[in-house]
Specification:
Blueprint (H helix, E strand, L loop, with lengths): L5 E2 L4 E2 L4 H9 L1 E10 L4 E11 L2 E12 L1 H14 L7 E6 L2 H8 L2 H7 L8 H14 L2 E4 L7 H14 L8 H6 L6
Parallel strand pairs: 3-6, 6-7
Antiparallel strand pairs: 1-2, 3-4, 4-5
Helix pairs in contact: 2-5
């Protein structure tokens, strides 16, 4: 008998394990995120889709002055903060190499050891770390602007939030933007 394999592109198990795939997929929280900035820095926003057990929830918010990377990371943070149930498998789908590589390649933990010295978005990374320990999410990269339905919808939510009239203030960024590097 062949071992079961997860297909990252389709977000499911190979056809030979379809029955198990349906069971796993129903008990897994799938998070899709995107961030946008109109100018970098400029007005920005994030878009999120949460999917669990047939339920879908969309979240978005905009900021008057921020960066794309901040919005990409904030989307992941806000999505994880929205989860109330512990012990669930969570997969985050993002088109942000910045976010995914920082976590999956372990860069984040090196920055943490150095107390985020001169590191961009230190406030958000420090907000993310306890969520990572609480949920241990898996990450899956999706190519942006390539027709992935959830990624395209998150992009629409993020851009719409960035263009809205009731933008929030990204206080940490506005106060510290001249002191950080990416």
């Amino acid at each position: 008998m062949k071992p079961e394999h997860w297909n990252k592109e389709t977000g499911s198990f190979k056809k030979s394990s379809k029955q198990f795939s349906n069971l796993y997929f129903c008990s897994m929280i799938r998070i899709y995120t995107d961030g946008a900035a109109q100018g970098n820095p400029g007005p920005g926003g994030y878009g999120i889709i949460l999917k669990f057990n047939g339920h879908i929830k969309e979240l978005s918010e905009g900021y008057r002055l921020t960066t794309n990377n901040r919005m990409e990371l904030l989307a992941v943070i806000v999505a994880l903060e929205a989860i109330k149930k512990l012990g669930m498998a969570i997969t985050v789908y993002s088109d942000s190499k910045y976010v995914i590589d920082s976590i999956e390649k372990g860069w984040l933990w090196g920055w943490q050891k150095k107390n985020f010295a001169k590191k961009a978005n230190a406030d958000l990374w420090q907000r993310y770390i306890p969520l990572h320990h609480r949920f241990t999410p898996k990450f899956s990269w999706v190519k942006g602007h390539a027709g992935h339905p959830e990624n395209e919808r998150c992009d629409q939510l993020a851009v719409s939030a960035a263009l809205s009239h009731d933008l929030l203030i990204d206080n940490w960024y506005e106060e510290n933007r001249t002191r950080q590097t990416d």
